[in-house]
Amino acid sequence: MRPRPHPWLPEVDRVTRMGTNSNRQGMGTLVFILFGPIVWAVHLTLIYGSQSSLCAFNPGEDRAGGDGLVISIILAATAVCIAIVGFSAVRAGSVHALIARVAPPAEQVGFILATMRVLAGLSILAMFYGGLGAVILPGCDQLR
């Protein structure tokens, strides 16, 4: 008679069923859920990196006190990143299939999509406020 395994140890069948496809699906689903915050991090890198780099070279300022090139880069990056996250929230099923390469389990679809859309909405709001700062504040004054 085979000894019964401890309850906290995984069963042999469960371990053999999980493979690289399951790990890829799990990682793909995690990246899908965190797609909004990932794009938000890229957005922050683009706007603060370009602002710091351009203002360090003192490209010249217009009469309003803001640098037009810095502001236009910030607004363009904001618009593109908001459009990407907005599209991913609207077309979540196709974006998940693109990232995870497989359909999510049927019992988890609602949770996965709702979580992704909430994080995408918060990321869009944060990127909007980040871009709004470029309109309100001068482009390079705070870095001098």
Number of strands: 0
Share of residues in helices: over 70%
Radius of gyration in whole Å, from Cα? 22 Å
Order of helices and strands: HHHHHH
- Poorly predicted regions: 12-16
Number of helices: 6
What is the overall silhouette? elongated
What's the average pLDDT?
Answer: 81
Largest sheet: none
Portion in beta strands: under 5%
What is the terminal separation in angstroms? 78 Å
**Structure classification:** mainly alpha
Quickly describe the structure.
It contains six helices and no strands. The chain is mainly alpha-helical and 144 residues long.
Give an account of the 3D structure:
This protein is mostly helical and 144 residues long. The protein has helices at residues 12-17, 20-33, 35-56, 68-90, 92-100, 109-136. The chain is elongated. Mean pLDDT is 81; it is low at 12-16.
